[in-house]
Amino acid sequence: MADGVDVISLSIGVDVPSPYQDAISMPSLTAVDRGIFVAAAAANNPDRWALQNGAPWITTVGAGTVDRSFTAQIVLSNGAMIEGYSFFQLDIFAADVPLYHCQRKLGCGSSSLNRSEVAGKIVLFDDVDPEGMHTAPDLLDSGAFGGLLVTNHPETLFHPDEGYFPMIALSQGSGDTVRNYIACSPGGAKVQSLRFRLTKLGGTPAPKVALYSSRGPDAINPSILKPDLLAPGHQILAAFSRERPYTSLGEYSVVTDYGLMTGTSMAAPHVAGAAALLKSVYPEWTPAAIRSALMTTAYVVDNTGKIFTEQQTDEPMTPTEFGAGHIDLKRAMDPGLVYDLRTQDYVDFLCGQNFTEKQINAILRQRGWHCRAELKVEDLNYPSLTTTTIKVGDKGPGRTVKFRRVLTNVGEGKSVYRATLGKRPADDENQSGAEKAVVSLPQRDQEVLGHFGRRRRFPGKGLLLSAVD
């Protein structure tokens, strides 16, 4: 902070029982007090309540996929062309390379690759389990030319650091094509050619919520919707230190200047970069105003027009997985209205959380603070409305929960805003009405029903959307 930074990106996290013991949360509040925007990774544990960095003054970021994939092309000797996923980064000559079908029912397993049978061949594996798959070293040690691994989720099978060996992940359909070809080739099946280093853009659906991205709610503050945002975090090209091996190959270490990396630690810097651009255009904006602009202009539907789904299961996701949605920097440049917060608001929030004076001293890292009032969590001027007061099985008349919000116009001076409750997904400005999605959140000794919608305000120019939980 001493060097005058405007934005901090934190790709780290710790599990802590309370904010006054959090070595990330406490100094982050000091940074926010000095006008510094803080973005932090939500962590890489997809279990409920596993989210980290959930303090309300931190912008918590989950990881989404992108529409780009790294592929390879196989041409069989019968002319059939098949596409799969691969991180192998070399051009290799492959002409009429024999195919070997490693069938588990015949005893072919990870510990039984026979070098005399597979050496110099491309090995096909059936129904690969990511937890017990043949690794690149297994194939390398056996002298195999390459590997074709058939799985239900080929796009997530490999890790980028396995790109030193020519392995290709295939879908079950593509695997059937290869298996049928082998079965119909008693004289020996062969691969005519291989092409690697292919990049495919425009994949659908995208983005998805990454399978590893930590889910909310935040265990410490479940009444504040977390994560805040989704940003690109899957297979991101990142600078890499040569002091740390990218991967190991036997006794050798592989180093690189750039490598593909995955995780919420890659997503947080995207939000930090977006915040820096917003700060350069609007230097007077507070960290909360910047976060608000990013959240209220985020989108929640993929490039097929459907609500975000989970990367591997394809199940529809909710704001407890993607927050307000995926960042859209262009729209964030003109948010219309923002939900602003100052340090005193966070102090009042802490005062309403039943902390002792000593604990608040530790969180604020200062003395001399005062409480204007004990602020209810529902009244924290956050860009989402969340309550956890409704339990499964509750009977009787409906309960009313009141929220108080103050909005600041950062758009044109004379703007008229109209509030409506929109459908989910809510990326179409012409939608009207209301839709509720219900999700059960395991919560230690009970379940909570989450009702998700999108509150929207339409000015003549600009758009504001708020997640309603």
UniProtKB/TrEMBL annotation:
The keyword Hydrolase applies. One of its GO terms (molecular function) is serine-type endopeptidase activity. It is found in: Secreted. The keyword Signal applies. GO terms for biological process: proteolysis. It comes from the Eukaryota. Residues 3-325 form the Peptidase S8/S53 domain. Its main location: secreted. Keywords: Hydrolase, Protease, Serine protease, Signal. GO terms for cellular component: extracellular region. Belongs to the peptidase S8 family. This is Peptidase S8/S53 domain-containing protein. It comes from Linum tenue.
